[in-house]
Each structure stands twice: as C-alpha cells, then as structure tokens.
Amino acid sequence: DADVTQTPRNRITKTGKRIMLECSQTKGHDRMYWYRQDPGLGLRLIYYSFDVKDINKGEISDGYSVSRQAQAKFSLSLESAIPNQTALYFCATSWRGTGELFFGEGSRLTVL
Amino acid sequence: ELKVEQNPLFLSMQEGKNYTIYCNYSTTSDRLYWYRQDPGKSLESLFVLLSNGAVKQEGRLMASLDTKARLSTLHITAAVHDLSATYFCLLVYGGATNKLIFGTGTLLAVQP
After folding, report:
1. pLDDT tens digit string along B31-57?
2. Which among A16, A33, B106, B107 would be 20 to 30 A from A43, CA to CA?
3. What's the CA gap between B42 and B11, in Å, rounded?
4. Are A104 and A4 in contact (CB under 8 A)?
5. How would you classify residue A106: left for phi > 0, otherwise alpha for psi between -120 and 50, otherwise beta?
6. How many CB pairs below 8 A link A and B?
C-alpha cells in the first residue's frame, strides 16, 4: 500500500459542485501539503499544514479550503468548482527535520 | 523575490549525448532535492544535496550543489529514452522552518 494515499484518483464534476479530495498518510510525518499542477506547468502550493492546529495558505488558496482532521489526514475542498480548477492535484508529506516531500499518486479533477 | 529557476525549460536530446540541467536560486539553501516526474504521474525523489560541494550519482544522473554560486546541476551522461521525464529541483531554506520552493521544472525528451 502507498504511504501517501489520495482519493479519488479521478473525478469529473460540474461547475458549482462541491468537491472534496482526501489525503491520508502512514509515514508518521507532521507536515502535509496540497499542490496543484496544470498541464506543462510546475507545482503551485495551495495550502500546507505543519500540524493539526497549524494550517497556512499557499500561493493559490483562493477558491479552496482545507481540513486537517488528524495528523494522518488532510482534505482539500472546492466549495463551488469552476472549470479553471481543472488540474492534477497532489498531496505531499514531509518531516520537519528534512523538508523532503513524499507525494501521493495525484487526483485528476475535471470541472465541466 | 525568492526565485528558483531551472534552465532549460525544455530539452530535446539524442540518445547517447550528455547534457546538464541547471537550478539557480536566490537565497541561502539548507538542502536541495531533485525530483523526477513521468507524464501524469507522481514525483519521485532522486537526490538530496546537503552541503556545498555535495555530489550524488545514480546511474546516468549526477547531481551537484554549489551553495556559494547558489546553483545546482543535474548532469545526464549518455542519455537513454527511459530518462525522458520532467525534472524538478526543490529548495529547502529558512533554517528550522524548512520552507520549500520548487524550481520551474525541465521537460527532458530523449530521442532515439
């Protein structure tokens, strides 16, 4: 089983719908991140969390919200999805001592 | 403004040739990682470079770090098609805070 698991892996939805992407990890890491990747582009940070009570906005947080339900779980929500949120979303974890990121397999979201 | 720039952004090369990808950054680094991403897939950590002059090698890839020049390189020796992927550098900075910033990415296409 993967150490960082994202669900769903693929999702097609319509404009205006609420969507939740979930991430769980078994690595015991304290830090969790959500990144967005558009075709042919790099990774942009949406939100990150250093522990359950410490959640921070990244560079593109507008239109997104997150919840850190436990050390091992970090969810990303799109309250009202729009087509330009169509992208590949990655969850990642790290241990505060190193900064090395461990990625999930990605969630491909299409908003029609 | 803190920047991590990679060049080239796109590299098309023939099998058997050598080439270097550059990662330039604009702040003091604590460590630097190189990642590989296959199309539509997750990111996989290749190397971590911890100090000035560090060199790591794995197969046809060799990474180095010059903290004085604020430069890391990823050298490809005798490229093969299987190395075709996008390569990202990830800068860790900020001391104990372990802040992260990705490079822009380099898409490598190795032609037969």
Report:
1. 999 999 998 899 999 999 998 889 999
2. A16
3. 20
4. yes
5. left
6. 52
